[in-house]
Amino acid sequence: MNASRQFRNMTRAIYRVLRGLTALWLCSLVTLGGAFGQQPSWNWGGPLDPVQATFDITMVYLELEILPEEKAITGSATLSLEYVSDTDQLRFQLIDAYTVDRVEAEGVLLPFSHQSDLIDVRLGELRPGSVTIFYGGKTPIAVRPPWLGGFTWEKDDLGYHWMGLSSQNEGGKLFMPCLDHPKSKPKNGVQMRITVPEVYTVAANGLLKDSFVEHGKATFLWESSYPIMNYNINFTMGKFHREAKTFRSLSGYDIPMVVYVLEENKERAPLLLEVLDQSTRTHERFFGPFPFPKEKIAVVETPYLGMEHQTINAYGNNFQFVRMGEVWYDHLLHHELGHEWFGNKVSIADWSDYWIHEGITSYGDWLFYLQHEGEEAYHAKVADARKRIQNKKPVVSPPNSFSDEAYHSDVYAKGAYIIHSLRFLLGDERFFPLLKRIADQEAFTYENQVGTEELINFLERESGVELGPFLRRYLYEASLPTVKVSRKRKTHYQVSISGIDFSLPVEVKTHRGIERIELNKVPTNILSEVPIEVDPRNWYLLRK
After folding, report:
1. At a CB cut-off of 8 Å and minimum separation 6, what does 32 contact?
2. Residue 421 burial (CB < 10 Å; 0-12/13-18/19+)?
């Protein structure tokens, strides 16, 4: 890399740090409100709106033009419908920043209102199979993407526009009319016709069916036939270099594997492709075959850190690859890719169960260490993650939670730690096949969605072990059980675990070595000629 390129990259890194600090300051102002004003705050989920309970959206077709100079979009969304019960009204979410010009169905203009981020459409006697909503306007700007999402508009080092979109915590209403609830997962997927100035490329979900240039504008036709959650629908614009190979999946499919990077970073594309390949192989080992074999495995370089957009994961980690055993590794790429299994294929219908997306995916991050550096590195990674677990809120939020209520740091590390504990409880011979089978259950995958209780029942049934008491204790209660050790005589110890109503097999280190002993709230007598150590390898979250 030449000196000027090094300088530009260093400058960009410094800028991103400063931008992050500025974003945190802005977030503080948002929280304070008052004299400083109030920034828009969006979330989604919660109780399902009664009007929206009367219909499902089965497919989304977006026909949009991206206007980078104006930081705006304009076009239409056609939403295919399936009625659950009779209704003379439809209700969609779309933020008020956009202007809705008209709503059409079967060649008829439908009366509507658009206020408070809601579009109410009056059907009269009509029951259309789809409606088309024409809208446009300046986009919401992401304050701290992806955590406070929206559109991110930047320019690359060559002066070209670069646009990214993130909306996990805000929902699809930031860029399209939708039924903005996690239960809404259009079963027939999404089609997009995206037009941009002709020098740019658009990377999006699924397969590129066509592209063409007319009148100084480039149009890209993307199509995904798999069920997809609203926030996973995505399009990114930039002056991209594309590099690709074929990935042979465990399923037997040959799948296109693609990376889109800025032109200025095209020399990094081959290594990025190698990192993507290694992460996919590792996930396949533990989670099973790649979930979307008829489309692609892909990442696109984005002006924000990252997000799990189905078959087109956002990647903005600035190529910070590290060696892990014999391979290169990028923690952010690996994590977002893991969501293809848990989050995109296995999805939840209530944000209260957020940990199923984030916790199991985070556990997949630890498995990369196990696979490529061994057991000791795996346990070191677990120990490091343990330091960040706060135990202030239950992992599972109350039913009908909104996204901002359910989203907190313990859905990641504590959710992963609970899965780590299951490994010890079940043993590797039962645990690893069971982990893989979660992502292979028809009742949990694609258009079907899973909740915490369904998952607990499945794990108990498939393992033949009564796991419910342990899982419910750790998932629904924030506090941790406490280990109590009392030395009665020189070589006599009594050990109990308070805060549980069940027994746990726990490793105890004595003069004889490490033993597996059943412990509960009733003291257990243990003989040892040296001071004992309970759970020395930290298989459980316990207060000691």
Report:
1. none
2. buried
The Cα–Cα gap between 298 and 290 comes to 12
Q: Where are the alpha helices (DSSP H) in 3-97?
A: 3-32
Q: How far, in Å, CA of 295 to CA of 286, rounded?
A: 21
CA distances from 197 to 63, 75, 98, 266 (A): 15, 15, 21, 21
Strand 492-498 versus strand 504-510 pairing type = unpaired
Look at residue 363 in the predicted model and tell me its pLDDT: 98
Q: What is the pLDDT of residue 488?
A: 87
- 381-419 pLDDT, tens digit each: 999 999 999 999 999 999 999 999 999 999 999 999 999
Distance, CA of 458 to CA of 462 (rounded, Å): 6
The one-letter code for the residue type at 434 is L
CB-count burial class (<10 Å; 0-12, 13-18, 19+) for 9? middle
Query: pTM value?
Result: 0.92
CB 501 within 8 A of CB 469: yes
CA-to-CA distance for 237 and 203, rounded, in angstroms? 7
Residue 336 in this model has a pLDDT that exceeds 90? yes
Which tens digit of pLDDT belongs to each residue from 436-460?
999 999 999 999 999 999 999 999 9
CA dihedral 417, 422, 424, 429 (to 10 degrees): -130
- Residue 21 identity (one-letter amino acid): L
pLDDT for 152 beyond 70:
yes
> How far is residue 350 from each of residues 44, 49, 450, measured CA to CA in Å?
10, 13, 9
343/395 Cα distance (integer angstroms)? 16
What is the C-alpha to C-alpha distance for residues 295 and 207, in angstroms, rounded to an integer? 6
Q: Is residue 248 helix, strand or coil? A: strand
